[in-house]
Design brief:
InterPro entries: GIY-YIG_endonuc (IPR000305), GIY-YIG_endonuc_sf (IPR035901). With 59 residues, this protein is an alpha+beta fold. Helix content is 34%, strand content 39%.
Length: 59
C-alpha cells in the first residue's frame, strides 16, 4: 500500500508525492530534509489517496 499526497504551501505552491509511510514523509518535509519541504516552507496536507502500489498511484 502506498499513499499519494498533495501538500499546499502558504504561497499556494503545491507538491505531489507518493510514499509508503506518510507520517515519516511529512516529518521529513517539516524538517526540510526533502525537496518539497524546502519549496513549500509552511504547508498543509491538502489531499491523500491510498493505492495498492506505486505503479497504480502514478497512473
Amino acid at each position: 500500500m502506498v499513499t499519494l499526497y498533495v501538500l499546499k504551501g502558504e504561497t499556494g505552491n503545491r507538491y505531489v508525492g507518493i510514499t509508503n509511510d506518510l507520517s515519516r514523509r511529512i516529518k521529513e518535509h517539516r524538517s526540510q530534509r526533502s525537496k518539497g519541504g524546502q519549496l513549500l516552507e509552511d504547508f498543509s496536507l491538502l489531499y491523500t489517496e491510498i493505492f495498492d502500489d506505486y505503479v497504480t498511484a502514478r497512473a
